[in-house]
Amino acid sequence: MTSAGSGLTLLQTCALSLLVFTGASQFALVGALAAGGNPFTAAAGAFFLGVRNAFYGLRLSQLLALPRAVRPFAAQWVIDETTAVTLAQPTRRAARLGFTVTGASLYVLWNLTTFLGALGAKALGDTDAWGLDAAGPAVFLALLAPMLKTATERAVAALAVLLGLGLLPVLPAGVPVLAAALAAPAVLYLTGRRASVARDDVRDVPDPQDVRDVRGDDR
Q: Taking a C-beta distance cutoff of 8 angstroms, is the pair 5, 136 a contact?
């Protein structure tokens, strides 16, 4: 339904779901398109959100050790859920089974519900009248919120929101999303600087043993 609210046709919606099997990237793409963004900037934002799956793939490739001919097809199923299920298994055989069952079931159900949702949105007629343009951002926030477990992650999210909203009036639609990606390196840099300063302060504090030795020499 959210893709229908952004102006995608039924065929485009189903193709997006089949080829881009990661919810966060899909919602980011249709959200940017719904806001009138350039397709290239919308795709770039979706790409950045999907980069984490590449890191999942690095870990799963060692754990699953699949044949080379199978790896390109298995890569399509590398998402949060399949990674979590695979890493929880005690043996390689169980890991392969968990990855395959989870990936296949989610892929089928995801695309089936996408098709049904797009049909339902088409039957509704004017999707703007139902407020479907707000569904994409709402679902994206619902996916993101449980991931913000540490202070650093919450700081990155807060700065990204400030950058996105602050640049929204002055940049073309879709570009603020890309600019918001700068929040992660900025917060990590500041966190590293703070940790470095803290270590320097600890080194500057004199060792009590050294102080006692100096006082003993004076006597």
A: yes
* Upper half-sphere CA count for residue 3 (Cβ side, 13 Å): 24
Tell me the pLDDT tens digit for each residue of 136-157: 566 566 656 776 788 888 898 8
- pLDDT reported for residue 97: 95
CA distances from 51 to 16, 44, 45, 80 (A): 17, 11, 10, 12
Query: Which residue is associated with the tokens 């296949």?
Result: 104
- CA–CA distance, 110 with 94 (Å, rounded to integer): 23
User: Environment class of residue 54 by beta-carbon count within 10 Å: exposed (0-12), middle (13-18) or buried (19+)?
Assistant: exposed
Let me know: does 91 contact 99? Beta carbons within 8 Å.
no
The pTM for the full model equals: 0.57
- How far apart (Å, rounded) are the C-alpha atoms in residues 76 and 74? 5
Angle between helices 80-87 and 39-64 (to 10 degrees): 10
Tokens of 150: 């540490």
Following DSSP, what letter does each residue of the chain receive, concatenated?
-HHHHTT--HHHHHHHHHH---HHHHHHHHHHHHTT--HHHHHHHHHHHHHHHHHHHHHHHHHH---TTTHHHHHTT-SHHHHHHHHT-SSHHHHHHHHHHHHHHHHHHHHHHHHHHHHHHHHH--GGGGTGGGHHHHHHHHHHGGG--SHHHHHHHHHHHHHHHHHTTTS-TTHHHHHHTTHHHHHHHHHHHHHHHHHHHHHHSPPHHHHHHHHHHH-
